[in-house]
Every structure is written in C-alpha cells, then in structure tokens.
Amino acid sequence: AVCHAPAVLLNVNLKTGESLLKGKKVTGFTNSEESAVGLTEIVPFLLEDELKSRGAVYSKKEDWASYVIRDGMLITGQNPASSEKAAEELLAVLENKLQNSL
User: Fold this and answer.
1) Of 14, 17, 12, 16, which Cα lies nearest the Cα of 1?
2) Known catalytic residue: 4?
3) What residues does each domain of the chain span?
4) Most exposed among 1, 2, 15, 61, judged by the fewest C-beta atoms under 10 Å?
5) Which stretches within the chain are classed as H helix?
6) What 8-state DSSP symbol labels residue 50?
7) 26: Cβ contacts below 8 Å, ≥ 6 apart
C-alpha cells in the first residue's frame, strides 16, 4: 500500500477488536507532504495522524523520498516515489512464497 493507500487498513480490526495496525511498522503519505501539496484542509484526515492513532509504529523519511517498510506480509510506501521499491518488495515476497511452495 503506497501513499494514501494504507488508509484502507484504518478500520480493519482483528477478532479481538484490536486494530490490525496496532504494533505494525508502517509508513504512508506524511503530514508535511500533505501540507506541501495544499491538501491538509481538503482531505478528511491526515494519514500519518490516523495511522499513529490506530497504534501503528509509523516512520518516515524526508518528504518525497522513496521509503518502503515491510512488516511481515504488510508492505507500505511513503509516497508515489516509493511505488517502484514497494513493487519490488512485493515481487520478492511472492517469489519467496513460490520458491517455498515448490
């Protein structure tokens, strides 16, 4: 999930009622990147804040840098510049799964 895409996980809860994101290492579009593109007053929420509020272990690099985190099977990228690296990480995971199934 790259850029704003981790938002799809915000309301996903485990059977225990805990957020799927609790304790997971993630990244996503930063508050400062949102501000830089003039969207802080337009978007319904700031993703960085919401990920943290769900208990995610959020980290980031400088604005617009490529940055990808993998926590188990969860792969997140900070912004559009992270797309290629996130795709490469996904391919590596799939390749590993395929090799282990042979």
Assistant:
1) 12
2) yes
3) 5-101
4) 15
5) 31-36, 47-53, 83-101
6) H
7) 6, 51, 56, 57, 58, 59, 69, 71, 74, 76
41 is an active site residue: no
**Per-residue pLDDT reduced to its tens digit, 33-74:** 999 999 999 999 999 999 999 999 999 999 999 999 999 999
Residue 34 appears among annotated catalytic residues: yes
User: Catalytic residue among 18, 33, 34, 41, which?
Assistant: 34
pTM of the entire predicted model = 0.93
Planar angle of CA 33, 77, 10, nearest 5 degrees: 85
- 5-101: which CATH topology? Rossmann fold (3.40.50)
- 6, amino acid identity: P
